[in-house]
Amino acid sequence: MAEMAALVEEGGLEEKCGVFACVAAGDWPTQLDVAHVICLGLVGLQHRGQESAGIVTSRGKEDDILARHKGMGMVSTIFTDETLAKIKGNLGIGHTRYSTAGFSELVNCQPFVVDTIHGKIAVAHNGELVNAGPLRKKVMKRGIGLSTGSDSEVITQLLCSIPPDGEPDGPDWQARIRNLMNETLMSYSLVIMTGECLYAVRDPYGNRPLCIGKLMSGISYNSPVKNGYDHASEDAEGWVVSSESCSFQSLGAAYYREVEPGEIVKVTKHGVESVCIIPRPNQDPPAFCIFEYVYFARADSIMEGQMVYSVRMRCGQQLAKEAPVEADLVSTVPESATPAAMGYSQQSGIPYVEVLNKNRYVGRTFIQPNTRLRQLGVAKKFGALAENFKGKRIVLIDDSIVRGNTIGPIIKLLFAAGAKEVHIRVASPPVKNPCYMGINIPTKEELIANRLEAPKLAEYLGATSVVYLTVEGLISAVREGIQHSKDNSNGVGHCTACLTGKYPVELDW
Description:
16 helices, 23 strands
């Protein structure tokens, strides 16, 4: 997490946002506090963005009034008991944001709400459209003004358009969503609230994560819930949809399943229904963002049928095979690199020892959009546990190096505290290319891997040595668990564009 936080700290990689939704099961009005459930869900997704957050709720189709509350800052400061009491409903959606498209302003806060000929809809979006520019022009040529710089507003306006075949039998939101998906192939995971139901939508390449949970009565998080399509039962209090499963446990929800790439899922008080799956062109493989495993996702989240923590451990084990070194101890830059460090230690037989103490009250500087705030965060974030490593050779595991502004000062800190050697081992390959699908990665010129090869980078950073995990090693570590845990009928594939420069679709800005 170091460099990822580095990312933050140094103005590198930032995840765009997280989405969350909830539908109460059974009779309405519900006794379930839907707004509070969504708020807690967003707290669980706070690592995906700390800039702004919003919640929109509805009582159902018979009541066309949508209650909403948005604000700048952390979820816990935006939503209070008083504000949540004002937005009670039977279903709702929420969003927490870090901007990659659009300025950091309240007007860009999601969810977006618009009036349509069939009533109001609310939309929350994680990702970034690869053809946002042409779509903005298309929307504006229809005489529709756009009030924000966010491509998520473009999505909302496209959903207002009547599908090509019309709507002879009344509102056809599924046709509208299919039309949207035909207009843009990626990158988006969406929750859409309309009338009495929610739609969970994932782009055909499955670039951003999205999963479904079942709010249960009196069972533990780990109780099995059969995958597939189910209807509300006696033990179901409701359904939730989330960018990640990590918040389910605190809500009393059981992990149900992923939304498949290209899938439209309808969620109502009666249960979950898969509407359809939009295929990828040319039988392309999926392109799930591989950096979700490296850093963005929380370690206890389940993605592609496997826990993120396990993938990070395998990355560390693979790194130990590819880049062994004689040393006295293995350690980590807390916290997302810790599983990789544990894996490296297990594979190499070198003991794991903590060398850095993290000040957890500085904040996650990786997600802060202001460069000065990031730089201040670096200086305040870590203290050296000198007695653990004085006079010893350290293998320090980090999850990534983007600009190099964070790891350099840490290396200097360790040497100043008495380290004999500091060998940097990076549990991901060099980041060499920008991302245009929802991650804020610097320009090629700013990425240090494009300026310095590993030996020169070690000299620049002041490290004894620097070695990255290979692209092949990362892919192997990620896919090993998928083969044993997932039905691969929809295929397996990952976007590695930031590492290889090979983008899954043509970019049209």
